[in-house]
Amino acid sequence: MGAGHAHRLYRHGHSPVHGLPPHTKLAATFAFVVVVVSTPREAMWAFGLYALLLATVAYAARVPAAFLLKRMLIEVPFVAFAVLMPFVAEGERVDVLGLSLSVNGLWGAWNVLAKGTLGVAASVLLASTTELRELLLGLQRLKLPPLLVQIASFMIRYGDVIADEMRRMRIARESRGFEARGVRHWGVLAKSAGALFIRSYERGERVHLAMVSRGYAGSMPVIDEVTASRAQWSYALALPCAALVVCLLGWVL
Q: How many C-beta neighbours within 10 Å does residue 251 have?
């Protein structure tokens, strides 16, 4: 985790949100999602306030709405699932625009869409303001199992290496006039996948031997010790605390 590693979700900036220690942002995001999930689905106004809170954080982080919405498209499969719920769920039915829909399915669809969208938006905001290396340092600071942090670190580091290897293999195939156009080309693609697996496995073994030869004994050294002041914790926890107030009002009102 000693070298920087930017990712596509990250948006470089110098906002107050970017400057917060990573473990405070991780804790705040997790707490916010827990509060959102705990909110009763009938309190529809509460989810509007949650969206307003996230919009405020996005404004403070100088993350454009277009940037945020584009990266929230990962939620599309869950949206499709939610749309089907009113049609397949059982129970009391209601007619909407000539369609017979389940009341429980409508509430379930709203529950999935509202809470899922807010959770995805919060996660995208976290990724937009925190580099991958900082996220790993934050997980380490929050005392997550070291083995899990190491696995995540290696996965991030060598994911791009494998992707680059795939790109070179694709260029090599195309330079020889190959284009996958049908089932009869699946054999070539399968052989390429097998070769990629072997190369990745061999690369992993070489990296492990290099690490062992340099004194690796199952744990990575802590190069950067990230700390947070009381003011930084207060700033980061302002979001989940405000959301908690909204959640309590949702249960009371």
A: 12
